[in-house]
Amino acid sequence: MKPLTTEEIRAVIARGKLKDTLFKALGILCLAFGLFVIVALILDMAIKGSERFTLDFFLNFASRRAAQAGILSAWVGSLLVMFVTALAAVPLGVAAGVYLEEYAPRNWMTQVIEINIANLAAVPSIVYGLLALGIFVYQFGFGQSILSAGLTLALLILPIIIVATREAIRAIPAMIREGSMAVGATRWQTCRYHIIPYAMPGILTGVIIGLARAIGETAPIITIGALTFIAFLPPAPLTALPDGGTAGLFDWVTAPFTVMPIQIFNWTSRPDPAFEINAAAAGFVLMAMVLAMNALAIWLRYRMRKNIKW
């Protein structure tokens, strides 16, 4: 093969640099387009719903009159459902990720489980809703309650948390494990004092991103029977009930509920144009909640990684 001359080598390098520049420009263009769409959507909702950004909008229940309608029951319901979702999904997901990465034997059964977890992350959310309808609502008798909704969304984000936990653990250098075990630590001590603390930034990022996805889900919540119009809040623990009794510590878990996406869906289906303003305002609030959760994930990851020294 004839060796390349200096001019030919320079031409090859110039072509490579040109391709790099074109690829970088294409990436920046795609990023700018995506940011433009998000900013345009947020600004459109903010402008349309600006007149409803009042304290009454956040403290009023839903109403048949658009000017008096609020999102109190919706945002409270969303927070309670997310609380149940986090309680169910985070411990189970993190424990499953740690087991699969640190304890599970490398055999065909483990491979089947890993493949199924990866596939479950891509299953449409409506499938989880149908599963929850048959198991949680009817089989277990939880009914159309906050508990059913929280467990449904926990199933939805469980694969995300497991995958995020495993990826965070894989990013830890092998010398951390080897050094810990070399001084006599058991596998559990290594996980507890080294692996999990060092992987916590990635784990928390996956958890918060999963919750940010769950808070905007509509299909599974509709499937299990969330209310589209509700003018009361779940009973607070140890407070007086209208019938003269006292609410238990966990009575709110079995209460009917609604969430922000359901409230937005209800308003957009109304023929009155005034409800579109309410829907835009509620959509902006929901988008702000999602962006805030993602920003929190980025901040936590940055803050915790600064404290890791190896």
Automatic annotation (TrEMBL):
Domain ABC transmembrane type-1: 75-297
Any one GO MF annotation of this record: phosphate transmembrane transporter activity
UniProt cross-references to Pfam families, sorted A to Z: BPD_transp_1
Transmembrane segments: 21-47, 67-100, 120-140, 146-165, 195-215, 221-241, 248-267, 279-300
Entries under InterPro entries matching the protein: MetI-like (IPR000515), MetI-like_sf (IPR035906), Phosphate_PstA (IPR005672)
Top-level taxon: Bacteria
UniProt KW keywords: Cell membrane, Membrane, Transmembrane, Transmembrane helix, Transport
Subcellular location(s) per record: Cell inner membrane; Cell membrane
Keyword Membrane: yes
Protein name: Phosphate transport system permease protein PstA
Family (UniProt): Belongs to the binding-protein-dependent transport system permease family. CysTW subfamily.
Membrane topology: Multi-pass membrane protein
Main location: membrane
Listed GO CC annotations: plasma membrane
Record SUPFAM superfamilies: MetI-like (SSF161098)
GO biological process: phosphate ion transmembrane transport
